[in-house]
Structures are given as C-alpha cells and as structure tokens.
Amino acid sequence: MNAPPVPISSAGVALHASLRHPPRLSADTLRPYIGILGVLLGAIMSTFGSRVTSFGLADLRGGLHFGFDEGAWMTTSFGVGQMLVGVACPYLGAIFGVRRVLLYGMILLFVGSLLGPLSPNLDAFLAAQFLAGVGSGTFIPLTISFIVRNLPARLIVYGIAVYAMNSELSQNVAASLEGWYADNWSWRWIDWQYCMALPLMFACIWYGAPREEINAALLGELDWPGLAYSGIGFGLLYAGLDQGNRLDWTNNGLVNGLLISGGLLTFVFVIRELVARNPFLNLRVLISEGMVPILLLLAGFRFIILSTAYIIPTYLQVVQNYRELQVGSVLLWIALPQLLIVLPLGWVLTRVDGRWVLALGALLICIACLMATNLTDQWATHDFLPSQILQALGQSFALTALIVLAVKSMSPADVLTIGALLQTSRLFGGEIGTAFMQTAVRVREQVHSNLIGLHVDSLGGQTADRLAAYRNAIGAHTSDLAAATARATSLLGSAVAKQAAVLSYIDGFLAAATGAFACLLLVAWLRPRAE
Hints:
Shape: globular
Number of strands: 0
Structural class: mainly alpha
Mean pLDDT: 79
Low-confidence stretches: none
Radius of gyration: 25 Å
Helix content: over 70%
Number of helices: 20
Strand content: under 5%
C-alpha cells in the first residue's frame, strides 16, 4: 500500500501534526443529509452570483442609473471578493472550523445582497458586491472539505457528484431566473434572491454541520505573508482579466497596472513559498504529488465551460434577438441531464478508475464543440440541444472525476486546501476562458467582416440584385427612392455583420474543441491513485 501523501500547506501540516480530526457524521441520522443540502445550496448560490449578475447587468445598470463603464465593475468586485477569501479558506476553516466560517459567510452575503439594490451611488454598490463576493466565496472551497471530512465514507463520492453537478446546473438556470425576475418582479431580485435562500441554508448548516473548537494555536504557525501575497496578487490579476477586453488590454494603463502588479505579487508569493520554512503552499510537494495536472485540467474545463456559456447566449441575443428569458429556456434543457446522471455517476466512480471517466468526459466535450461548429444564422433553440446536452454530460463526467482524483491525491489533513486550490483554478480558468472568448470573438468578427466586405462589390451583379430585392421590399412601404436605397444598403450591411458574427462564433467553438482535446491529452499525465 502506498504511503499517504505529505501535507502541502502550512494549515495541513499543522492539522496533521496535531492529529485533529473532525467528528464524522453517521449515515443513519438526518444530520449529514441536511448538512450537505446546506453546503450545496451555498455552492449553487456562489455560482449564481456571477452568472445572474452577468445576464442581468443591463437591468442592474438601468435600475441604478449607471453607465456602461461603471456597470462593468459590478461583476469584477464580486469576483475579486470571491478570489480573496477563497485563498484564505484553508486557514479560516482550520482555525475557526468550517461551520463558523460558513455561517459568517452567509451573514456577509445576506447583508451585501440586501443593501446592494438600495445603494445611493456606484461606490456603495461595489462595496456591497465585494462584501457579497467575500461571503459567497467561502461556500465552494468549504463545501468540498465538509463533504470529505464529515460525511460517512460511503456517501463521499455521491456528495462530490452532487457538488460537481451544481456548476453546470446553476450556470444554465441563471438566465431563466434573471429574465423571470425582470419580467415579473423587479431587477432588485437579482440580488435579493439570496436573501430568500440564505435562511434555509443557515438552518441546514446550523443543524447539519458538526461543531468544531476554535484552534487558536494555529495562528502563530500559519504563513500570513504568503496568504497576503497570493490573495492580493490573485485578486489584482482577476480584476485585470475581467476588465481587459473592455479596456483593450495593453492599450490601457489601468489594465496594465492591474496585471503587472498582480503578476509581481504572485511572483513574490512563489519565491516565498520556495524558501519559507512553513509555506502557505509547499510548491515542491504540490508538484511531486501530481496535483498540477489536476489543477490545470480544472482550469482547462472551466475555460471551455465559460467559453461556450458565453458563445451561446451571445449568439441568441445578437443574431436571433432573444431576450434573457428566451435564452434561459434553451439553457434549461442543457441543465436537466445533470439531475438524471448525478447518482449513477457517483456509483460508477466507486467502481471505475476516475481517469477513464475523466477521459470520456473530455472526449464528449470535444465532440460536442465540433458538432456546434455547424452553426448557421438559422439556428435557434432546438439546434443547440444535441451538442449542448452531450457537452453537459461530458462536463459532469469530467468535473466529478477531477474532484474525486484531487481528493485522492492529497493528504487528509489538506482537505481544506483542496477546496481553495479548486476554487482558485476554477475562478482563474473561467475568467481566462471568458476574457479569451470575448476578445477572440471580437477580433475574429472584425476579420470576417473585412473578408466578407471584400467580396461585396457595389458594381457586382449579385450585390446589385441583393440591393434591388431589398429596395423593392422597402418600396412597398415608401415612395422615397433615396430613403429606400439607404435602407437597402443598411440591410445589406446588417446581413454582412450577421454572417461575420456567426463565423466568429464558429471559430469560438473550434477554440473550445481544441481546448477539450488538449485536456484529453493532459489526462495521460495523471498518475494512477491507490484506493
């Protein structure tokens, strides 16, 4: 039998040295099931936080009377809050216990969500969003640790499968919720929705999560400078990535400042971790235990998920003029398969090497993205369903298997750190995917527009015929020939823009398929794990 892995973090080393083990719940009582319901509600709300706000950004800007540039910081402030606290969660959970951190996180999210729509100005709203991000940022990292440390052994794989399902389910339900709020209630419910769900989560965690003593002795053993360098550095990099496409990357001083300062702090963090006696993350052990390919795979899959999650709603809104509620009806069908496969998938992972499940998931995602390259300007709801249902299944297989492999790769004392590493890789992978796809689609659309425009000859026969057809159609409603000609020219320009947009989205799906194939190759790097 292989020796257990060495702890990779100072929090893990301290917990390992103290032999501190949390009480494990009994499967014969309701407490573990109520507890897991609570942490999964938190994980869903954490994912909702960024997705619902992204879909509802126009409604929030309008309701709060902010301009486009002002409103662009709404999602950034929320994400930076999640990034900062996600890095600190191993320390917070080790010192205060998972239950306390989750309860305080819920209070922060409740206050931030309640006050956000009532903000008198942009600064107040961004502060509320940051506060909500800090609160919700505790949920995903600590969900993993709760599942692994507290649930009965035979339920752990099923808990992980349900946890992995939440990402796909919540991000695809977000558009429907935002559209429904805007149509039936108010834009304020984009934030206030959490105030309805949080009391239930609070009650579940209060009853279902085991109580742990405060371990104040750990305060002196932990790597606080490493925590500060990583949290601030990662937060600055996240903000730079989130604002990069809007501000044109290196052509903007603010983006340059965010990325350079974040990169320098991250570099200092890496140097410190290599020389510190009790590093925040022992990078040498992290590499030797084979966690690097797992983290790269998670970032890669989040890159793909957020890339395609950007393309489809954007296509439906730009090319087909769908509203959020109509976009949501498409995405809901993608989310439904998750509910059907979650428990069977957990059963499979107790009997099959997770690497095979991971490889199958990557292959399904690659095939789904290639299927979507058949996109035309005639595609609507039903045309996306075959490829996206296949992708949803692949993502469930891949993410669930990845988390199971991550848990097996690390020392039991480092379970708290697993959540923080996964959260950091998840946020960075998703943000890089969104930033890359926004920029790539914008650039490729310009290229395709120029290439198509080269073939639109004002004196050519086909162009003249198209303009004449437009002019005749418009002429039935006006006797002004000049106005009809101008309108016909405008319609031709719109047709060119639509085709350029469709071609750029096809390029985006090709990029996602390439990323999935790279992930498939990376699976071969994973080492087999002892059971």
